[in-house]
Design a protein that fits this description.
The protein has 317 residues and is α/β, with parallel strands linked by helices. It is built from 9 helices and 13 strands. The longest helix has 15 residues.
């Protein structure tokens, strides 16, 4: 099957995975174990890594289809309305009897957060829900690990067979099979996840030269992963590409902003990568664009409501 892109026409993005209601409490600092603190505000917002990534890509003019499951409850209504409002096709998000998944989030004044998720309806998204026909003509398939592993593998296989680039966000971290690694076109991890994946290999410090990343490039390639994006938080990100002999490791500078809430910034980054790859950008070009989009997403409270439009990103670029 051909994977050629019509010039100037972004290809479709298929996101398969999780939708959660984010129950967020704001506080001066995160509590220590066993400690109770007073919060300074509470909000219920649409979230879930896959829903966030779909919204981020949709707001950046991506043509996005979301595959997932929510409950027959008000949280499910909220999530469907939010994703559809970003232009995402939600006709393949099923309503089930399980309650909609939730994430309990604490956000401190610095913008840092801690998150606990309960799968709920997301756990009902089995491999049987992955219809290969939905992946026909897709340019990018966007996946994370908030749904069952067999579902992720089925979606990766369907995307790979359709000629799409499979973009796997290895979060929440879990080991993956060699088969899933081989199906993955771009792996997206933070530095801690990268170290875990490579058996404890320490990632270079953020100010290290690109040449210090060559060991990681080689080890990822040995696992069947030629292209990897390693996010470094406020220090930017690294594009690792073993197929590029001239520049196998490229540092992407961070975009400096006054962060208010970092919740969902990683999903904004992932969705932005998907949108730009579907539009025909190289991985380095996509990462530079995503740096701006993810930074803008931290300047407002919440997740999906904070995600920038293509006009917002263009203004900062």
């Amino acid at each position: 099957m051909s994977s050629q892109k019509t010039p100037g026409t972004p290809r479709r993005i298929v996101v398969a995975g999780s939708l959660n209601a984010d129950l967020t409490i704001y506080c001066e600092r995160l509590p220590l174990p066993g400690e109770t603190l007073h919060g300074s505000g509470f909000a219920v917002n649409p979230g879930g890594k896959s829903a966030n990534q779909a919204v981020a890509a949709g707001r950046l003019d991506g043509n996005v289809t979301l595959i997932g499951a929510v409950g027959n409850d008000p949280n499910g209504d909220m999530l469907l309305a939010s994703t559809a409002g970003a232009g995402v096709d939600v006709s393949h998000v099923r309503r089930v009897e399980e309650p909609t998944g939730v994430a309990v989030i604490s956000v401190e004044d610095s913008g840092e957060n801690s998150i606990i998720i309960s799968a709920g309806a997301n756990g009902t998204l089995t491999a049987n829900a992955i219809d290969p026909a939905l992946f026909e003509g897709a340019g990018v398939v966007c996946l994370c690990l908030e749904v069952p592993a067999e579902t992720v593998l089925a979606a990766a296989q369907a995307g790979h067979d359709a000629g799409a680039t499979v973009l796997l966000n290895l979060s929440p971290y879990a080991p993956i099979t060699d088969k899933l690694a081989r199906l993955t076109g771009v792996l997206l991890v933070n530095s801690h996840e990268a170290s875990q994946f490579l058996g404890g290999l320490a990632m270079p410090p953020s100010d290290a030269p690109a040449s210090d990343w060559l060991a990681a490039v080689e080890q990822f390639a040995g696992r069947g992963l030629a292209k990897v994006l390693v996010t470094l938080g406020p220090a930017g990100s690294m594009v690792l590409d073993s197929t590029n002999a001239d520049e196998p490791a490229v540092w992407i500078a961070p975009t400096k902003v006054n962060a208010v809430d970092t919740t969902g910034a990683g999903d904004a980054f992932t969705g932005s990568i998907a949108a730009r790859l579907a539009a025909g950008d190289s991985l380095v070009e996509a990462a530079r664009y995503a740096s701006v989009a993810a930074a803008l997403a931290t300047t407002k409270k919440g997740t999906q409501a904070a995600y920038p439009s293509a006009v917002d990103v263009a203004a900062l670029l």
